[in-house]
Amino acid sequence: MNPDRKKKWDDGLNNLAKTVANLEASVKSPITEKRDLSGIIKDFELAYELAWKQLRTLLQIKGDPADGARDVFKKSYQLGILSEEALWLDIIEDRNATVHTYDENKARAMVDRIKFRYFQAFANLLAKCRSET
């Protein structure tokens, strides 16, 4: 791996690790106010953005580039980097819906999906990325 790509990989991995740690802290904290919902959703959005960009870098390193989050997640699944394609496609859909989540009940439902489905996917992805270095 060339030095520039190595630095990009390492920087991305460090940022992803911090973001997954922040998401973990958010989902493990009690929700006492509406802004707690917003904080969890924001941490989810950041984890999503860093996850697909880190995967894009990994695909580039492997010589199998992809464009856009959906393509990156699908190709990562096809190459065995991700084990649950449907889960990641659900994550994409919920990420796209976050900008249109004004209703508290919808926000709570999304937070439940983040806590009980998506957080572990991000943690697993982080572990997979660490094993790639």
Write a structural description.
This protein has one domain: Nucleotidyltransferases  domain 2 (Four Helix Bundle (Hemerythrin (Met), subunit A), Up-down Bundle), CATH 1.20.120. Helix content is 80%, strand content 0%. The protein has five helices and no strands. The protein has helices at 3-28, 34-61, 69-78, 85-97, 104-132. The mean pLDDT is 93.
Structural class: mainly alpha
The CATH level-2 architecture is identified as Up-down Bundle
Q: Biggest sheet: strands, sense, closure?
A: none
Number of helices, where a helix is a run of at least 4 consecutive DSSP H or I residues: 5
Contiguous low-pLDDT stretches (5 residues minimum) are none
What is the CATH class? Answer: Mainly Alpha
Please trace the helix and strand order, writing H or E for each element.
HHHHH
Shape: globular
**Which whole number gives the mean pLDDT?**
93
Helix content: over 70%
Task: Give the termini separation.
Answer: 10 Å
Proportion of strand residues:
under 5%
